[in-house]
């Protein structure tokens, strides 16, 4: 049994009392951050205070300065400790982040959570609550008796509920195989030697291109107004892309669960460094590649897979070396077509097999096979993962290729 966590979000407009409480919470959190920075300076800037140290140092000051429910003070300290720890991690990686500061009112709490008659009860003071109605979708989601509400977060525009449940994960002995995921700019390729599905992602590319075209057309000289408008269109682009990926990731996880397969990803962290200014690439190409949501699709599949008990395998850089250039049938190094040969665009040639193969198909077969090798090794069956190797009679046939237009997936 594993504990899976998820959040559900809905629109919300706070009243005057709740907004005042949110502003108080914001100020308390910023004061905790200031106190934590002072403790760091006392130590020469080499160590971030733990939550216990920050609590001992700041709790009395916060209780004297702010009159609110005492457990909100503890939540503010916890939030500040997390932000300071994140800042320290960034500094260890060589970055120089600004001092954390919260500019908008918000409220986070994991204490005294009460949902009565489809309403969230937010404590304002001892014995006094604010009733926040939940929409039908949220009430329907929370109707599952297996769910437990862990915390809530209030902002000026939305409310987010963090929930958890106990999940029976598919064990290694219960897995029937692996399914590889190859992330590309215009498609998401998912499959193994039995079947491969192409999800068309050109709509996400066109959304990004249209948004950049709109932003380039702005002629306002006021940088503040320009920044606000750009932020509006950027959020619109992110929301539309996220919804598209939501439909794809939901289907990928559902099919993997039905077939009792583990989902395998390759490690491509840092690929954005290939598309920096000065690399000899055009601005339009760099903009398109840097808006490629390769991390978002993995994030969505990972949390949905955890919610359904589907295992996720992320191969290391060493394990993913050659996934696009090694033939999945014989292991021979593949050859790229001559430049200008549009007949075999995005295809690779194997001299041993004497055939052209789509490079996305090559990648997903190799990723799936190497993921299978890993969990077979964990079970002590190193010689059994040969699903894409030439000579294995069970998989000598071509994999079934399925193509899906992501923009036409049904909503569920």
Can you offer a commentary on this structure?
The protein folds into two domains: 20-108, no CATH class; 172-212 and 243-408. The protein is 41% helix and 21% strand. The chain has ten helices and 15 strands. It has a six-stranded mixed β-sheet with strand order 12-11-8-9-10-15. A hairpin with a 2-residue loop joins strand 3 and strand 4 (119-125).
List the helices and strands and how they pair.
Blueprint: E1 2-11, H1 16-42, H2 51-65, H3 70-92, E2 107-109, E3 114-116, E4 119-125, E5 128-133, H4 136-142, E6 148-154, E7 158-167, E8 177-183, E9 187-191, E10 195-200, H5 202-216, H6 223-258, E11 261-265, H7 283-290, H8 294-308, E12 312-314, H9 317-320, E13 347-350, E14 355-358, H10 359-378, E15 400-405
Helix pairs in contact: 1-2, 1-3, 2-3, 5-6, 6-8
Name the descriptors.
412 residues; 15 strands; six-stranded mixed sheet; alpha+beta; 2 domains; four-stranded antiparallel sheet
Short description:
With 412 residues, the protein is α+β, with helices and mostly antiparallel strands. The chain is built from ten helices and 15 strands.
């Amino acid at each position: 049994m594993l504990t899976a966590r998820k959040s559900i979000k809905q629109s919300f407009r706070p009243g005057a009392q709740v907004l005042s409480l949110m502003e108080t919470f914001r100020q308390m959190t910023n004061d905790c951050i200031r106190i934590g920075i002072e403790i760091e300076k006392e130590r020469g800037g080499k160590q971030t205070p733990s939550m216990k140290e920050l609590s001992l140092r700041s709790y009395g000051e916060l209780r004297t300065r702010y009159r609110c429910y005492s457990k909100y003070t503890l939540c503010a300290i916890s939030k500040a400790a997390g932000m300071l720890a994140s800042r320290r991690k960034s500094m260890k990686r060589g970055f120089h982040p600004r001092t954390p500061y919260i500019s908008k009112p918000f409220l986070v709490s994991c204490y005294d959570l009460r949902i009565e008659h489809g309403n969230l009860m937010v404590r304002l003071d001892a014995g006094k609550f604010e009733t926040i109605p939940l929409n039908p979708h949220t009430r329907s989601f929370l109707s599952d008796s297996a769910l437990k509400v862990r915390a809530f977060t209030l902002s000026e525009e939305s409310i987010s509920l963090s929930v958890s449940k106990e999940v029976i994960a598919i064990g290694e002995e219960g897995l029937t195989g692996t399914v590889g995921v190859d992330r590309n700019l215009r498609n998401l390729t998912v499959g193994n030697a039995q079947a491969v599905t192409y999800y068309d992602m050109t709509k996400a590319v066109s959304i990004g291109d249209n948004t950049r075209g709109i932003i380039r057309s702005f002629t306002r000289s006021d940088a503040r107004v320009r920044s606000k408008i750009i932020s509006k269109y950027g959020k619109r682009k992110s929301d539309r892309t996220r919804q598209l990926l939501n439909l794809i990731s939901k289907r990928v996880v559902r099919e993997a669960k039905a077939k009792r397969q583990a989902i395998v990803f390759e490690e491509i962290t840092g690929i954005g460094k290939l598309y920096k200014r000065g690399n000899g690439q055009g601005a339009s190409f760099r903009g398109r590649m840097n808006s490629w949501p390769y991390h978002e699709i993995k994030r969505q599949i990972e949390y949905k897979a955890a919610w359904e008990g589907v295992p996720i395998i992320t191969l290391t850089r060493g394990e993913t070396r050659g996934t696009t250039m090694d033939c999945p049938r014989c292991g021979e190094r593949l050859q790229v077509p001559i430049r200008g040969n549009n007949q075999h665009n995005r295809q690779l040639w194997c001299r041993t097999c004497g055939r052209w193969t789509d490079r996305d198909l090559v990648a997903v077969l190799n990723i799936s096979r190497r993921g299978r090798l890993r969990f077979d090794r964990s079970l002590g069956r190193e010689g059994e993962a040969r699903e894409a190797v030439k000579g294995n009679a069970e998989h000598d046939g071509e994999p079934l290729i399925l193509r899906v237009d992501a923009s036409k997936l049904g909503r569920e």
